[in-house]
Amino acid sequence: MAPPRLKEVVYTLSPFNQNVMTQMFKNIPEAAHRKIKENWVDAGFFAIGPVVATIWYANSYLEKEKLHHRFEPFPG
Predict the structure, then answer these.
(1) Closest CA relative to residue 21, chosen from 33, 31, 13, 29
(2) DSSP codes, the chain
(3) Quick check: 33 and 26 in contact, CB under 8 A?
(4) Is the pTM above the cut of 0.70?
(5) pLDDT band at 73 (very low <50, low <70, confident <90, very high)
């Protein structure tokens, strides 16, 4: 029994087609806005939340660094 013949599908792009990537980048602002609008809770927790927390931590650290010399423990 002979093995069945396999068929092959090949997809190629024409080298003369200049707008292959433009379609991908054309709607980025609208797509991003739609995704954020649909998933605003996730965007808040995983995109905005870490940025705000990092800024908050940095400001707190700088404030503690400025006040470090005032709170030295008493000797003994």
Answers:
(1) 13
(2) -PPPPPP-------TT---TTHHHHHTHHHHHHHHHHHTHHHHIIIIIHHHHHHHHHHHHHHHHHHTGGG-PPPP-
(3) no
(4) no
(5) low
